[in-house]
From TrEMBL:
It comes from the Bacteria. It comes from Bradyrhizobium campsiandrae. InterPro entries: DUF5131 (IPR011101). This is Phage Gp37/Gp68 family protein.
């Protein structure tokens, strides 16, 4: 249920409760739902159109208070505050969560002003009705992020994110399921990455490059977490004009094939990007050979 975290963009995870319902294409292969099959935190993970299972309130509410007490010690070592991701196994703005639980959470957040809270939601449309606008002015140590996996979600949800008067705004484009043109938008932070797990969908290198370049042009902190299961394969020139090779196979500008078929690679959407399924432990987190792990200034002070 989280404490010290291996996630590259936070120090701790805190789950005030566990359980959720899939509401986005990004949820299709949810790691929390998969893990719940083994750990049985809740009776079932919610599916669209089904009656939701009750959420499970955890017993870890003392952890943020402990981290608050450790603030000076952490700061003396790292020269920055602790970053807390809430919630990795749930959604703060879930309709099925009792309102009093959410009130308890924001009370806890207000008691831990030296932590830097990261609230990430797939239900950005619920935020304004669940949290009074004036409450955000009392929480300068809290940022709000929306999961946005493709252009349709960007067009629908980014205006809702910007309408919330949080101290800072961010986007989690993870898993990134298509190219995203952010236009003239200027969020404080964009995190992106590929999907992991048995049924992971691959991500085009070009989608990531375009986000990187848009962030650079707009002065937006860009954080590339990982490739996930799939990464760009190393290609060699082919003897045939307009074709390229990978191993013993030659490719041209073909459509994407089913990702679970073999051999474990395929071409992406008419581009010359061949993706190979290597597994997360081998794909790494470099984009064109460079690590991108930027943070907005609000998470550094």
């Amino acid at each position: 249920m989280g404490e010290n975290s291996a996630i590259s963009w936070c120090d701790h995870t805190f789950n005030p409760w566990i359980g959720c319902t899939r509401v986005s294409p990004a949820c299709d292969h949810c790691y929390a739902a998969t893990e719940n099959q083994r750990r049985k935190w809740v009776a079932s993970w919610g599916e669209p159109g089904q009656s939701p299972a009750p959420r499970h309130r955890t017993k870890t509410w003392g952890n943020p208070l402990k981290w608050q007490r450790q603030h000076l010690q952490f700061y003396s070592i790292h020269q920055r505050p602790q970053r807390v991701f809430c919630a990795s196994l749930a959604d703060v703005f879930d309709n099925e969560v009792p309102a009093e639980w959410r009130a308890d959470l924001f009370s806890l957040i207000n008691r831990t002003p030296d932590l830097r809270w990261i609230l990430l939601t797939k239900r950005i449309g619920n935020v304004l009705k669940m949290v009074p606008a004036g409450a955000w002015t009392r929480m300068p140590h809290v940022g709000l992020m929306s999961t946005i996996a493709n252009q349709a979600e960007w067009d629908r949800d980014y205006p809702k994110l910007k309408a919330v008067p949080a101290a800072w705004h961010g986007i989690s484009a993870e898993p990134l399921l298509g190219p995203i043109n952010i236009g003239d938008a200027r969020p404080d932070w964009i995190i992106t990455g590929g999907e992991s797990g048995t049924h992971a969908r691959p991500m085009s290198i070009q989608w990531v490059r375009e986000l990187r370049d848009q962030c650079a042009a707009g002065g937006i902190a860009f954080h590339f977490k990982q490739w996930g299961e799939w990464a760009p394969a190393r290609l060699r020139a082919s003897g045939s004009p307009g074709r390229f090779a990978f191993g013993d196979y030659e490719y041209d500008r073909t459509a994407m094939v089913q990702v679970d078929s073999y051999p474990r690679h395929f071409t992406m959407f008419g581009s010359r990007t061949v993706m190979e399924r290597l597994g997360r432990s081998k794909t790494g987190d470099r984009l064109d050979g460079i690590e991108h792990k930027a943070f907005p200034p609000q998470l550094a002070a």
